[in-house]
Amino acid sequence: MKAIVIHETGGPEVLKLEERPAPQPGPGQVLLKIAATGVNFIEIYQRSGVYKVDLPFILGGEGAGTVEDVGPGVTEVKRGDRVATMAGLGTYATQAVAPAEKLVPLPAGVSFELGVAAMVQGLTAHVLSHETYRLKPGDRCLVHAAAGGVGLLLCQMAKMAGAYVIGTTSTEEKAQRAREAGANEVILYTQQDFEAEVKRITGGQGVQVVYDSVGKDTFDKSLACLAPRGCLVSFGQSSGVVPPFDVLRLGGPKSAYLTRPMVFTYLQRREDLLRHAGVVLDWIQMGKLNMRIDRTFPLAEAGAAQQALSSRKTSGKVLLAP
pTM, whole model, 2 decimals? Predict the structure, then answer.
């Protein structure tokens, strides 16, 4: 098979396309013929050394494709099934193994590309908006990077839940995409102070929840945007890691909440994975949820794909086509 392998951490140049023996599925595992691979920040953190991995290493956890072979004890799927996963082992490749219990069957009307896009980003958005902070009608929420992959989905899901959605974007073009996804108001953070704008829009009351994937650059002002007993959901760090801070800042008249959710924690049980994925994939199939694919790169251009994602200039999902 062909695979993207890293032998040392560093920039995109350390991603090497190599010929490797095809993996064999062990007990409880399946072998997938990969049709589409998702590109995520976690792989950038692994490549750069922010997240430690044993080297050499084939990148990738998110993939969609066809079950080619099954290992001993597999009952969840069979050969020929169309599936997607975000728990694969080395999906920056033409073939990869994955735990059978972490596979999600794809409905007939959902392509491999849309199916893989629904995994990390779709399930993250659904978990954040339906469990981490369960949005309800009348809630006000602030969505940072509202035209990004998760951001566009959060805007749509928040709108479906009856929330008033405020988004932040860098350009007017991205702002228009966020509005089309359901944002009631969009703040151009490159031109406006988003804290001041949130307070103006809410009449000084603030928002019940901030969904923040940006991290370092937005953390302090996101806290300031919260209404009393509001919740800051910090789920990413595209601008850098949030420095340590005094927890007393959560107290005072606001009694605010801060959480750092990892979507994998919510989906450890297969029944929870299938429940969340089932809703998201049904919405896609029915046309209620628009999954935006920003662009697709050949496998050999994995470095360029990661650069596109890390530049924060993409809007929607970045994919590899093995």
Answer: 0.91
